[in-house]
Specification:
The complex is a heterotrimer.
Chain A: H1 24-37, E1 45-49, E2 64-67, H2 73-83, E3 88-94, H3 95-101, H4 103-112, E4 117-122, E5 125-126, E6 132-133, H5 157-164, E7 168-173, H6 177-189, E8 194-199, H7 203-207, H8 215-225, E9 226-228, H9 229-234, H10 237-240, E10 244-251, H11 258-276
Parallel strand pairs in A: 1-2, 1-3, 3-4, 4-8, 7-8, 9-10
Antiparallel strand pairs in A: 5-6, 7-10
Chain B: E1 3-8, H1 9-19, E2 22-27, H2 34-43, E3 50-53, H3 57-69, E4 73-78, H4 80-96, E5 100-106, H5 123-128, E6 138-139, H6 144-161, E7 164-170, H7 171-175, E8 177-182, E9 226-228, H8 244-257, H9 260-263, E10 266-269, E11 276-279, H10 282-297, E12 302-307, E13 309-311, H11 315-324, E14 327-332, H12 338-346, E15 351-356, H13 365-375
Parallel strand pairs in B: 2-3, 2-4, 4-5, 5-7, 6-7, 11-12, 11-14, 14-15
Antiparallel strand pairs in B: 1-8, 6-13, 10-12
Helix pairs in contact in B: 1-2, 1-6, 3-4, 10-13, 11-12
Chain C: E1 5-13, H1 17-31, E2 35-41, E3 48-58, E4 70-75, H2 78-84, E5 88-97, E6 110-114, H3 116-124, H4 130-142, H5 147-157, H6 163-181
Parallel strand pairs in C: 1-4, 4-5, 5-6
Antiparallel strand pairs in C: 1-3, 2-3
Helix pairs in contact in C: 1-4, 1-5, 3-4, 3-6, 4-6
Classes of the chains: A alpha/beta, B alpha/beta, C alpha/beta.
């Protein structure tokens, strides 16, 4: 039986705002399949986003949803999670939202290792504002604000997350959608801050400027460029040039999770208070 | 009789918040407001509440809104530069109608300015700080006891009208210590946000058909609604069209404007027969009271109008006052901000004179006494 | 403004003068049931620099919270003395540390010079108790707060385990004034 997405989609809110050829719809469905496989009650999920194309996603899903200011989804989500530590808080953000204007929040959320699931939709560009270069745009790529080719250097988002202290870091792509379901499931189940970088295509503002003839070309590029991390690591460097690993790139269990540590303190103080009384 | 303590203004603010039922604080260290955070850092974990020191001022404001959406009464405290940084998210809370309280302990500026001295030059920012048209409520206590009770009132107004409320006081009032009574529970009213009575399927988070303040469901209570900083319809989803945007923005302003009688609070001191009035708040209001007492003892008919709510501005009261006195003197620790509001409401019915000072020291009673005598 | 009495505690940052002001205000406001306001001004440094703390005591409501016409000013350092003495009123009192304030500014105010820091380091054995010695001297000179109230206020504000030491420091302050008077 085909998967019934409608049980998670708010009535009357579709069609979505994404362009034809945009891969966000693929990710949207992958998230819903992941949530469904975990049997999470919809009432117990909050989905928080910032500003950008990806950040429109929460409007379509039937959870507690919060579409915030540019770059600030993580601190809003941190407030929610700290107040209700037993609920699931998913954050969806784009590459610009998460790592440029929200870069400080990104590294600090990772450092705190607070139990949030952060899905970074990386389409290598500011799509909503018309194709300006982002901290993820590869050097040399054309963008509305890099009309002679990008002279800036991109972030390696998983490396950034790991370096800042996230205890679960993964990468998936829109092309490898079924594999992505599992990564999102693992990310939600992980107790601590999980980052999943999800490679996406923006044919309208990125592909068009960078010699991708069609949205299909962009998906095929993903197919050829990203390989499972286990296979990637077995290959010598000359064979992995221009390729990137995908899958779970880093996972560490037992790292103190912020809510747990904080509420541990609350419990300790409560006992001390009872001891005195 | 409640508990009697000698407290700093900033500590009294934290006590007021706790009295009002605040269980969530997020902040970032900044002089001269930090004592509010330090007090909450000690107390909130003891009562099972949340204390968060965030990575910056913007994050602190964001976390406060997140906490408030889950049902917590939430507080942040900051000063000048931090207050500037919070403005975008404060606007978000105004548009999305999330109750929360923001304390701004005012210092000199612009930029780093005089971090350890008092200022009153953020007062227009308290009204106009965030972009776009928006409602503003700002309270201006001047005594440590008032900081306590006005903080309780700030939470009450915030919950009642579903809007952020600012408390603005200066460094002197924030740092000075006075004896205060922390009322016993139940003595001061404590208000909770309006809650939906309908089943989730019928809930419209921004339904304006039954009044200007729609009931608020908290996250995770089964209502599963959408909150967005885009202009939105009654169901909370983006609306990009006339006339909803216009009418909804009017409603946001009306929530505050049409409830002035409930929100605007002030002290009138010896104004019945006054020929000269002083309009002053915060530490300048304290100076003015000493000055008024002094000139009264010399037979000069002076009085004081001291707003405890500066936004919405006490327009009617100032208009009335301007028809009864020859002059209104406005001492303020800025080069001239609130004086323009006094002037606007006076409509030329009396003379307006400012006393302005931005050197990190308060305006002294002697300065005000001298000006009163000059204009008599 | 009858009954308004203004005291300024000054010295260098880290000498505990803000705490001294707080204790004095607490003695007056909480234990003697008078009106009192304590305020302070400080620079960005946590240690060093001139620092001051002010206490205003009155039987009436205190509105303006800062000292502008000082009845008694304490100066534990030369720098603080020079920086802050100008607000002492003509018939006020300047109380200085005998060893650390050698140049007494000119004025019609009364000057009392006492070995406050030396008493703390030699009699009490801890120089950091100078602020408590100073409270004792000021309480004795001004008579504005009761001895009982000062003692309660000191004991409520000092760290646990230092109560005896601070009580002795307070007494030493009272004694300094008594001895000088005799």
């Amino acid at each position: 039986m085909a998967f019934d997405y409608s049980q998670y989609i708010r009535g009357g809110k579709l069609p979505h705002i994404w362009c034809p050829g945009c891969t966000y719809g693929i990710i949207f469905k992958s998230i819903l399949r992941a949530v469904d496989s975990l049997k999470l009650p919809k009432d117990d999920i909050a989905m928080v986003s910032g500003i950008g194309c990806a950040s429109r996603l929460p409007g379509y899903v039937d959870f507690n949803t919060l579409h915030t200011t540019h770059g600030r989804a993580l601190p809003f989500a941190t407030g929610i999670k700290m107040a209700k530590p037993d609920k699931h808080v998913l954050v969806v953000s784009g590459d610009g939202d998460a790592t440029a204007i929200g870069g400080n929040h990104f590294i600090h959320a990772c450092r705190r290792n607070i139990d949030l699931t952060v899905l970074v939709f990386n389409n290598y560009i500011y799509g909503m504002t018309g194709g300006q270069y982002s901290p993820a745009t590869p050097t040399g790529h054309m963008a509305a604000t890099m009309p002679y080719g990008n002279v800036d250097s991109p972030f390696d988002i998983p490396a950034l997350a790991k370096g800042a202290g996230a205890s679960f870091v993964a990468r998936g792509t829109a092309f490898h959608a079924t594999a992505l379901d599992k990564l999102i499931v693992d990310a939600i189940q992980h107790k601590g801050l999980s980052v999943v970088e999800i490679i996406n295509a923006c044919p309208t503002t990125h592909g068009r400027r960078n010699k991708f003839k069609s949205p299909t070309d962009m998906l095929l590029w993903m197919k050829d460029t990203f390989m499972p991390v286990a296979a990637f690591e077995k290959l010598p460097p000359e064979k992995t040039a221009g390729k990137f690993p995908m899958g779970v790139l880093y996972r560490k269990e037992g790292v103190p999770e912020y809510c747990k540590t904080y509420y541990g303190l609350v419990e300790r103080l409560k006992k001390q208070g009872e001891g005195r009384a | 009789m409640g508990k009697i303590k000698l407290l700093q203004g900033n500590e009294a603010c934290a006590e007021g918040a706790l009295y009002a039922g605040c269980t969530f604080f997020a902040g970032y260290p900044i002089t001269p407001s930090t004592e509010v955070a330090e007090y909450m850092a000690r107390r909130l974990p003891q009562i099972g509440g949340v204390f968060l020191q965030m990575e910056d001022e913007i994050a602190a404001m964001a976390a406060v809104i997140g906490g408030a959406l889950t049902g917590c009464k939430s507080l942040t405290a900051t000063s000048g530069p931090g207050f500037s940084l919070k403005q975008e998210n404060m606007g978000f809370a105004m548009l999305t109608e999330v109750p929360c309280v923001i304390v701004n302990v005012m210092r000199g500026g612009p930029s780093t300015g005089v971090p350890t001295g008092p200022g009153q030059s953020d007062i227009m920012q308290c009204k106009w700080g965030t972009h776009g048209d928006h409602p503003a409520i700002c309270l201006t206590p001047a005594y440590v006891q008032e900081i306590f009770s006005e903080t309780v009132r700030a939470f009450n107004l915030s919950e009642k009208y579903r809007t952020p409320v600012i408390i603005a006081y200066d460094e002197i009032v924030g740092h000075m210590r006075e004896r205060i009574e922390i009322s016993d529970p139940g003595v001061l009213p404590v208000v909770q946000r309006p809650r939906p009575a309908c089943p989730p399927a019928e809930y419209l988070p921004y339904d304006d058909s039954k009044g200007d303040v729609p009931p608020m469901a908290n996250f995770f209570e089964g209502y599963r609604y959408h909150v967005t900083g885009l202009n939105h319809g009654p169901d909370g989803f983006p609306v990009n069209a006339s006339p909803r945007i216009h009418t909804d923005e009017l409603r946001l302003i009306r929530k505050v404007d049409s409830n002035r009688a409930d929100i605007v609070k002030f002290e009138e001191y010896l104004l019945e027969d006054a020929e000269v009035a002083v309009f002053a708040y915060g530490v300048s209001g304290r100076s003015a009271k000493t000055a008024v007492n002094q000139v009264r003892s010399e037979g000069v008919k002076a009085g004081l109008f001291r707003p405890l709510t500066i936004w919405p501005f006490p327009e009617e009261q100032v208009a009335g006052l301007s028809g009864r006195v020859r002059k209104i003197i406005v001492p303020e620790l800025s080069l001239g901000q609130i004086i323009h509001e006094v002037d606007r409401c006076s409509k030329g019915r009396c003379g307006i004179e400012g006393i302005h000072r931005v050197d990190g020291d308060p305006i002294t009673p002697a300065q005000i006494v001298a000006r009163i005598k000059e204009v008599m | 403004m009858s009954g308004r009495y203004e005291i300024r505690f000054s010295g260098s940052g880290g000498q505990g003068l803000i705490l001294a002001g707080v204790i004095f205000a607490e003695a007056a406001a909480i234990y003697d049931n008078k009106n009192a306001v304590q305020s302070q001004s400080y620079g960005p440094e946590a240690r060093g620099g001139a620092s001051k703390s002010e206490v205003i005591i009155s039987d009436e409501t205190i509105d303006f919270p800062k000292a502008t016409s000082i009845d008694l000013m304490l100066a534990l350092t030369q720098e603080a003395c020079a920086k802050y003495y100008k607000d002492i009123k003509p018939d006020g009192t300047l109380l200085v540390d005998e060893d650390f304030v050698r140049e007494i500014p000119k004025g019609s105010f009364k000057v009392i010079s006492l070995p406050i820091i030396r008493t703390a380091s030699e009699e009490i054995g801890k120089a950091f108790a100078a602020n408590i010695v100073a409270i004792g001297t000021i309480a004795a000179i001004t008579g504005r707060v009761s001895r009982e109230a000062v003692e309660k206020a000191v004991l409520s504000r000092v760290p646990k385990g230092t109560e005896d030491l601070n009580k002795r420091a307070l007494l030493a302050g009272y004694d300094l004034v008594k001895r000088r008077a005799n």
